[in-house]
Every structure is written in C-alpha cells, then in structure tokens.
Write a structure and sequence with these properties.
Blueprint (H helix, E strand, L loop, with lengths): L3 H18 L4 H8 L3 H8 L7 H14 L6 H9 L16 H12 L2 E6 L10 H8 L8 H15 L9 E7 H5 L5 H14 L5 E6 L13 E6 L8 E7 L4 E4 L2 H17 L3 H16 L1
Parallel strand pairs: 1-2, 2-3
Antiparallel strand pairs: 1-4, 4-5, 5-6
Length: about 290
C-alpha cells in the first residue's frame, strides 16, 4: 500500500483527471459542491480532503458530464487510506517537515533520478559515511539524534533493494566523490560501495567529471520522481529542489519538462556507466593509498 502522502497525491491526480475529462475548470467544479476555487485546488494537490458524501456528489456530477471518466472504486479506496497516523514519530521525526514528502515519494516511486554535486546521495551512503556527516561535519545533533538520523537514512536505502525496486539513475559531480567526509580510508570504502551498487540491475550511476566540456549549467542538486497512479490518469511526476532551509516540489508540466531536458543533458555530458565505475574505483584507490 502506498504511503498516506502518496495516496493523497494519487487521489488528487485522479480527481483532476476526471474534472478535466468532464470539461470543467476549478471554479465550475467547486460550484457543484459549494466549494471555492482554492479549496478544489488544494484537494487536487493532495493538501486537503472532502467528506465522503461530498466526494460522492462531485464524482456523480463528473460522471454525468463525461460517462466513464470517473474511476470510483480507485478513488474511494485511496480516500480511505490517506491518513498519517503518526508516521513521523520516533526516529523518523528527525526528518525536516519539508523533506517528509520526498521520503514518501521515494518509497512509492517507479523511477528516481538524482543529480548531486557535493556529497554522496543519501540512498548510496555507507553507515560510517552517514555517521561522519553528523559528527565530523559538525551538524550539531545530539548523540540520540545522530542515531535516529542514521536509522532513518538506512531505512530509506531499502527502497533500492526491495522486491519492486524503482529504476534509479544518479549523475554525480566529480566533486561529490572527491569531497572528503570523515577520512580518506572511509572515502575509499564509501566509493567502493557506490561502485558495487552500480551492479544492481535497477541502478545506473554516472560521473560528471570536472573536465566535461559539454556539461550544462546545473549548479544545484535536484531529484525527480515518477509515481504510478491507478486507472487512466497517467503517472505523477515531481521535481524536488532543496536549499539550506527549505525544499520545493514542482509538478507543473513546464517545470517537469525543463528538468527532464536538464537531466537528459547531464546524462549525455557524464561518463557512461562503465567508464564511471572505472573512475569511481580509481578515485577509491587514490584515497586508499
């Protein structure tokens, strides 16, 4: 079962698809059930929900205008399973509120694409690398918070090895594999694990070297998610961009298309997967000397 966050997003996605099939804008749809444009927008973005009787009235109106457009069974199934129920308690409380949606998207994605510039991506980090990030990097967490952060991040990594693991592509700037976290011996072990991860059938890792002449102007990290959606509405697609104090989720067609093009340019500019693995092993050997 998808996470509550993703179920809400899938529900909103199906409702938007049904509304568009019915030929209605948000204002017209809202008037059918006495709701405002802003309320309908929040419903379709998965930020709020409608009472079941109101949802049923809305679906009936859509179905009347576009027979067959409403996937009622899927919609009500998603609506019943969209509550949080303490998911972010315990060690998971270490996640910043703005990052929690990214964790849920990660858990339910069919595809994840990530560009990283300065450190190894969290999904590929070793336990000792994670610990070093929260100790030698002086992120000023308590001992317990460090252990919670460690447990939470290791839990996230299981997504790459589960039964229905997503296809995952990583383009890593050369700086991310040369930046020393902990010490050189630790970095050698970390990079060898990255090279081993590249052997998994669902993972592709590429290095963007410093001398990549055709590298596009990608100066910040980003992550792209593709989330399956039930019915005929097509997948959800999100871009996650994070800065020092906040994270943004972009799902507009223009934003997703722009980042898709940028991702394709990065993949083209980077070393191919075979050469990238050789590059990673070579840098690991340099750290081990």
């Amino acid at each position: 079962m998808p996470t509550p966050t993703v179920r809400r997003l899938q529900l909103g996605h199906l409702l938007r698809h049904a509304r568009e099939e019915a030929g209605l804008d948000l204002d017209a749809a809202g008037k059918l059930i006495g709701k405002t444009n802003s309320t309908m927008s929040r419903v379709e973005r998965g930020q709020t929900s409608l009472p079941q009787h109101v949802l049923r009235k809305l679906l009936a109106a859509y179905e009347e205008r576009a027979p067959g457009a409403v996937e009622e069974a899927e919609i009500f199934d998603l609506a019943r399973g969209s509550q949080e129920r303490g998911r972010w308690s315990g060690y998971r409380s270490v996640y910043s509120k703005y990052f929690r949606m990214a964790v849920d998207l990660e858990a339910d994605a069919s595809a994840i694409f990530q560009y990283q510039t300065e450190i190894i991506p969290g999904l590929l980090q070793t336990e000792e690398y994670i610990r070093a990030l929260f100790t030698t990097a002086r992120l000023q967490l308590s001992d317990q918070s460090t252990e919670d952060a460690l447990e939470a991040r290791l839990e996230r990594q299981a997504v790459l090895r589960k039964k229905d693991a997503p296809q995952a592509g990583f383009v890593l700037s050369e700086s991310s594999i040369r930046r020393v976290v902990g010490d050189r011996a630790l970095m050698a072990r970390q990079l060898r694990q990255v090279a081993e991860a590249a052997h998994l059938h669902n993972i592709q890792i590429q290095i963007l070297p410093f001398d990549a002449a055709t590298a596009p102007r990608a100066t910040h990290d980003f992550k792209m998610f593709r989330i399956p959606s039930p019915g005929n509405a097509g997948p959800l697609e999100f871009v996650y961009v994070e800065d020092f104090t906040d994270g943004r989720y972009l799902d507009g067609h223009g934003d997703v298309d722009a980042y898709t093009v940028l991702w394709q340019q990065l993949v083209a500019a980077a070393l191919d997967p075979v050469e990238s693995e050789k590059f990673i092993v070579r840098v690991a050997d340099e750290f081990a000397r």
